[in-house]
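Field log, afternoon session.

UNIT: design team B
ACTIVITY: writing a sequence onto a fixed backbone
BACKBONE:
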């Protein structure tokens, strides 16, 4: 049995874990197959993600609320940066970059990535190994995604680098398992205009932007829902398996 901390930026992205897990001996952990899982949500954007990760992996552990995790899994939606990654494709990061080019490339646990890949393949779930990149902005337009791809990445999100960096500093192996919700060609409403300084969304501004682009918003919601169904299947396979030891 392993203890795994799962990080998801939103309640929606964390919902599959709550459905998979059942209460464990510890009230704050969920039992998922052979693993005990601690779910950490609410950290959208690089700054919030780092704060949530530091709180979960340093301060909380120091207070002995839960034992130190054996591994960290970062999950949720991501954007595709290449035409080879269609929507609903599951991706496992081998490495993660930051848009701040001075920051080092971070590597995910090769052992756990290989194990997840084999498990998903045996369950007939297609998964691509990719290099990811974390951006403080939402890649809403194809030209923005092309710029990120030129930095050497195939998928983009807003949290993985910060959490990986924190886990690495804490000596905890970490991996990223995400699903492509928007392909490189898809245009999104410009929710960047609703981003706060900490990377989270201003709800009122986001609603106004969504209402101003009803067709793009509707297509985005459908794409997100379709992607989350596929991610749920992958997470059920991975989180119930002994691949995090």
């Amino acid at each position: 049995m392993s203890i795994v901390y799962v990080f998801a930026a939103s309640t929606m992205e964390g919902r599959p874990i709550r459905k998979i897990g059942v209460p464990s001996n510890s009230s704050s952990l969920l039992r998922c197959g052979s693993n005990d899982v601690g779910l950490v949500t609410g950290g959208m954007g690089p700054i919030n993600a780092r704060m949530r990760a530091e709180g979960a992996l340093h301060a909380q552990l120091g207070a002995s609320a839960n034992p130190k995790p054996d591994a960290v899994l970062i999950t949720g939606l991501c954007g595709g940066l290449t035409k080879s990654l269609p929507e609903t494709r599951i991706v496992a990061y081998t490495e993660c970059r930051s848009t701040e080019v001075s920051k080092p490339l971070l590597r995910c646990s090769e052992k756990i990535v290989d194990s997840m890949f084999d498990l998903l393949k045996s369950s007939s779930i297609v998964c691509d190994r990719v290099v990811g990149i974390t951006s403080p902005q939402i890649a809403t337009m194809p030209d923005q995604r092309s710029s990120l791809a030129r930095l050497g990445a195939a998928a983009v999100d807003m949290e993985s680098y910060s959490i990986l960096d924190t886990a690495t500093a804490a000596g905890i192996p970490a991996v990223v398992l995400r699903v492509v919700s928007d392909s490189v060609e898809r245009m999104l409403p410009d929710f960047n205009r609703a981003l706060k300084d900490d990377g989270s969304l201003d709800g009122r501004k986001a609603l106004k932007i969504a209402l101003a682009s009803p067709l793009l918003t509707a297509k985005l919601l459908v794409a997100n829902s379709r992607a989350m169904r596929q991610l749920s299947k992958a997470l059920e396979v991975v989180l119930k398996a002994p691949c995090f030891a």
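LOG NOTE: The chain has a mean pLDDT of 93.
NEXT ACTIVITY: expression trials, pending approval
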